Fold each of these.
Amino acid sequence: MPRDISNKTVAITGGSRGIGRATAEQFIAAGARVAIGARNHDHAAKVAADIGAHAYPLDVTDPAGVQAFWNAVEADLGEIDIFVNNAGEMIVGPFEKESAEDTAHQLGVNLLGTLNGMKTAIGPMRRRGRGHIINMVSAVGMIGLPGCATYSAAKHGVVGLSEGVRAELRGSGVDLSIILPIPAQTELTSGVGKGRFVPLLTPDDIAKSVLRTARRPVYNRYVPGWTNPVTRSLFLLPQPWRDAMGRFLKADQLLRTTDYKARIAYETRVKAPTAEGAGA
């Protein structure tokens, strides 16, 4: 039987925009109490007022800040049943031209941010013998793409981290899941080139999969589902064939077809100081 989500407490990092906001709305519609954390607390508070959530300041790169977020949510809403590590940011461009600051920023938010969330959630959930951690990854966590190499590396790291921790949690009553969507129509992908035969999802498409995973826990959920066998099949091919398939699907065109001017507003905002930041 699917799990009843009503009256559960759900905490979502990077919950004020894009996939995070859509996920919050899905859980609220299902009857859950939802907390969203974001660096730009003023924006998060406005979103929370609009959708019926509770907003808290959060910088996922700061372990103490993540712990403070956890403590505040539990003090206000009760024990956290589901923790969604959603915060993520992507900077597009040739790897060799990426600044050290941009590299550190992406690894900090996408990999260390998820790690900090998991470390904070596991202890309390293990002691209670229940809980569910859901990590938002990406299809590039399985297959790296040129033009977002550091982002791919961070998401690859989350996959490896999740694999190892999942084994450590076996028998504890704590579930761990990863969500692996193809690109969605969000600010994170603004201006990014599009591959052949690859549809752009909406944030709601991915949010519905998160809710489905909370109701029926599985370890990995690909979005859309058909990308699961396709991705796994690619790993069975010799590398030259995989490269040829990537060229056929135009995965190698990301750098050449991205509209970098269309990304200026997004990338400027995510690099801004904490008070003005975006998803984290």
Amino acid sequence: METPDNATEASDEAPAPTGIAAQDWATASADPQYRAAVVDLLGALAYGELAAFERLAEDAKLAPTLDDKAALAKMASAEFHHFEQLTDRLTAIDEPPTAAMEPFAKALDDFHRQTAPSDWLEGLVKAYVGDSIASDFYREIAARLDTDTRSLVLSVLDDTGHGNFAVEKVRAAIEAEPRVGGRLALWARRLMGEALSQAQRVVADRDALSTMLVGGVADGFDLAEVGRMFSRITEAHTKRMAALGLAA
């Protein structure tokens, strides 16, 4: 999954983790509600990585050059490796990966069906914008996870190289044909709305994840902070649009 290129670096003066965020998995997982939330989180992430692999493999078919096709195939391989890391962890904690992923399959499949790109450039923008929004969301949650789970989540959000690749290709296309920019800007705004709606639906449908976001884990993450979280995600999206040369 794509790591946002402009992800905010942690402040040197940030307070030390407290509560569950300072515990390891063995300690934190003694709380059954927390364990259920983590299983949901890993299941959602795993299915997202599998879907990203499938999407990048499909996008490679639209690539205009052999070099572009090879680059996307390499990125798809990285996404599948992330998928394997997540399913291996689920297996290690005695949770069947398929059962953990199943609750999220329909929502993610619906999102991808509703936002199917019509061409190569729309596919690039979708992967860059959509994956980055998802990464922002998971990074917000990761800050409040136990140390072992946080390390895993952050590792699978590592940059596959797609962000810089998409920016380079989209900016070059707009420079060659400026009219393309308007169409891609509208497309990116649609993706933003669909991605945020999907994230909110997924959380609302899963009690354990909802509890995690509104106060069931570390540091008192309350409803007001949820609103601020989505504001930060929106701000990061605006910066990415600028990087693409598109109006937010």
Amino acid sequence: MGRAFEFRKGRKMKRWSAMAKAFTRIGKDIVMAVKEGGPNPDANSRLRAVIQNSKAVNMPKENVERAIKKATDKDTANYKEVLFEGYAPHGIAILVETATDNNNRTVANVRSYFNKCNGTMGTQGSVEFMFDHTCNFRIPANGIDPEELELELIDFGAEEVFEDEDGILIYAPFGSFGTIQKELENRGLEILSSGFERIPQITKKLTEAQAADVEKLIEKIEEDDDVMNVYHTMEE
């Protein structure tokens, strides 16, 4: 198995564990998708992907429809995706993905978390290069051979395909998202969920006490409503 498999195994999608938080994040994704490409999922591939993800976290259909309707209101604030970078204690690189309608508030909050937990906020590009920006898709297994599917999807950008208890996962570079999404749809394969992740190129092993210091910062950051994802180089 490759790095994507190990990364996924370590994280176990824990950032989606809180249902209310997941719904809030999906709602922001819907607003950004609608503002970018309109409210029709058939003509907006990004919105189609978000709706698939809403089903994966059991978000009620009426919530999704309400969010789409709200997003079409010109008075509804748009969210801007902003990336923050820095270091946690013990030299662990941290990447924070946010979606915010008030950048000043988000900058101040994220900086305060780093400061309170003995971390250091970095400048743009200071740690981003340590992570590979990837996209991923989950489809039902349904008797599909992951190795055969990987060979078939290599030409569309796929780099790693593997099966877990919830289906088959496909990983590819960030830029291959649209190409693979279209190919899966053309094949009539159901996309259970999709998204983007940043996989650390190298990880660092810490002692239990050191890891606790880093987890304290990560948990503090993840509690913020503007934060979508937190990635790090600590070995899981």
Amino acid sequence: MTTSQGSGGPWSDLDRPPLNTSALRRALVRPDSLWTSLDVVTSTGSTNSDLAARADELPEGAVLVAEEQTSGRGRLDRTWTAPARSGLFLSVLLKPAVPVHRWGWLPLLTGVAAATGLAKAAGVDTSLKWPNDVLVSVGGEERKAGGILAERAGADAVVIGLGINVTLREDELPVPAAGSLLLADAVSTDRDTLLRAVLRSLEQWYGDWVRADGDPVASGLQTAYAAGCATLGRRVRAELPGERVLEGEAVALDGDGRLVVATEGGGTEAVGAGDIVHLRT
């Protein structure tokens, strides 16, 4: 998840107005919608932790958005810093009525939904780096503009965190490889518009996936992810648990959402966990 620092009041940066909570609720929380509640907090440690702590008492579809996060968590215990109100920092609570072995597709589904929604609302070309990064193009260079973290919560729930850098300027980037929608020349950086687009896209993709009993082929998810995945067809280095390293070409996604890597020895290996580095050829 994205974290942020140095907030000030909600109108301290006029280029970064606060989200309009009441308007977002009117647009997204409806009787026929997946989204059952939507709350925006000025600051919190981690939206994922906050929702996970209430997973058993809340219904599916709870959305928690923070204008600022102070202790956000990402994969491999990483942090991602950004000024308050410079991005979308949110978590959603899902209780998938599909076989648990298919829940591994949820981070990939969220990536497809985010990329689809942002492409429509921000007018930027997006791609996905397996398994959980959203990439944009800044000056012809791939940059990470967002990340996804899915965690089991309670008896039957998953909390999915999503962080998207929206208005970060070059001098605010936490690392050179980071990017933002602003730097990718987005036609809109209105966070209300972007949040509505992302949550509506997520509702559609999640609904299709659940109706297909979590089947990635029948729901169209596997095809959509592969089509938008910048990792496939690239030489990669997979840094695996236990300090093992695997290099080769990323050739496919298997039925469980794992990345299939063709090694130089002629074999293939499916990677389900680890850090993937795109190698220059």
